[in-house]
Amino acid sequence: MRLIALAVVFLPLTIQAQEVPVSSAARKALELTIYENDLALVKDQRDLKLPSGQSTLAFSGVSAQMQPETVLFRLLGPEPFQIIEQSFDFNVLSPQALLQRSVGSEVTVLTPNAATGKETVERAKVLSVDQGLVLDIGGKIHTQVPGRIVFDRLPEGLRTTPTLLMTVKGVASKDLRGELSYLTTGLSWRTNYVVDFDADAKRLDLTAWATITNATGVDFKDTKVKLISGDVNRSALPPPPSPMVRRGGPEVAMAMAAPADGIAQQSVGGYHLYNIEKPLSIENNRTKQISLLGGKGIVAKQEHIVRGEAYYYQQQMSERPPVTQAETVITLKNAKTSGLGLPLPAGTVRVYGQDETGAPQFMGESALNHTAEGGDIRIVVERDFDVTSEREQKNFVRGGERIVLTTWRVTLKNAKSKPVSVRVIEPLYGAWEITRETQPHDKANAQMAEWTLNVPAKGQTTLEYTAKIQN
Question: Which of 331, 316, 450 is nearest to 396 (CA)?
Answer without folding.
Answer: 316
